[in-house]
Amino acid sequence: MKQSITGYHTDEEGHWVAQLFCGHNQHVRHDPPWMVREWVTTASGRQNMLGHRLDCVKCDEDAPPDERPALVVSIQVGLPQTIGSEHSWTSSFIKQQVTEPIWLAAMNLAGDQQADLAHHGGPDKAVCVYPAIHYWHWRSQLKFPEMQWGAFGENFTVSELTEQDVCIGDVWSVGDALVQISQPRQPCWKLARRWSIKDLALQVQQTGFTGWYFRVLKEGLVQRDAVLQLVERSHEQWTIAAANQLMHHDKHDRMGVSRLASIPELSHSWRSTLTKRAETGQQPGSNRTNQSVWDSTKSNLGSDDGRLSDCGTGVKNEKATAFDCFSDDDQHFPGPRFCGGGTSGSSPSRHVRCGRDSSGRIADGLRSGEAS
């Protein structure tokens, strides 16, 4: 809840604390990272901000859960960049935090762009959203206590909302913009590559901590700390959690699949995948080539410590019905679904990257799919 600043003092360590109208005291910084707001570092800045309203963390904690405002606690944007020198890769995954108001257009935020337009971006994936609360889990689980907002490649890091709280087709206002939930996020191999944890995408899928995507219904300025306000909800039974459950776990529930696929607000890629499953009963990965083929394949994927390094796949044409995998001696192993992470020949717009970890096992979570 926003409360006006009535004064200031410093704590025992010399950090500036704002005194709020509600009677609470609040450090004038963000968590995480612990960054001091620039205006509090000068006397004139502090004077100018008297009467300005800050979001009082204590008031939010004391309020009943259904009265706590959902906020965009951080905004991140990034452009394609080449990462690494040996076995380099190109991605917009690594993003920078934005502190000033920024324009949200139909396809993306100003200053944000996808490197792989075949599998990312577009009107159904204009904004990638991730719940702030999941970071506490991942910092502990992955032993990365320093992990900051944007570490999962998201544009919006949001408070008070999880996959259990939002639904396909929800319309939300944020700043001057109007956005709508189009689908859950399905992280691709780049998440694993970024953090050098080969099964991280699989971990995200299994926990259900996926986040989701917004499409933009009305363009406008947005900024950090903006309130997310629910405007319309048409499919309350289809939470992001429910959609994830059906896509990844209840794969044989063809009736449920058909119902979810019939929602017009669901993204085109998810409707296409689910419609095919409902009609044919085909499950992702059902045409996998026997993994014994890997016994004769050498890959560059594993590093000495067993963490993710690089992929030995060379894709000649992103629209090919198969991918091309080469061993160290240039032996060629073509074919769709070679590593079990790809798609059948009837889906010609996708390909997979594949490889092994240093122990020789198939690397998990390294798929580049339609909904990643």
Describe the structure.
With 372 residues, this protein is of the alpha+beta class. It has 8 helices and 19 strands. It has helices at 43-48, 57-62, 134-141, 189-195, 200-207, 240-248, 254-261, 268-280, and strands at residues 2-10, 16-20, 25-27, 53-55, 70-77, 81-83, 89-91, 96-98, 102-104, 127-131, 156-158, 171-174, 177-184, 212-218, 220-222, 227-232, 313-314, 324-326, 332-334. The strands form 5 sheets. The protein has a 7-stranded mixed beta barrel with strand order 5-11-10-14-13-12-16. Strands 3-2-1-4 form a 4-stranded antiparallel beta sheet. Helix 7 packs antiparallel against helix 8 (268-280). The longest helix is centred in the C-terminal third of the chain and has 13 residues, at 268-280. The radius of gyration is 23 Å and the shape is globular. The relative contact order is 0.11. The model is unreliable at 30-35 and 285-372 (pLDDT under 50).
| Number of distinct beta strands | 19
What's the pLDDT, averaged over the residues?
74
The amount of beta strand, in percent, is: 15-25%
Total number of helices = 8
Radius of gyration in whole Å, from Cα?
23 Å
The SSE order reads: EEEHEHEEEEEEHEEEHHEEEHHHEEE
N→C terminal distance? 35 Å
Structural class: alpha+beta
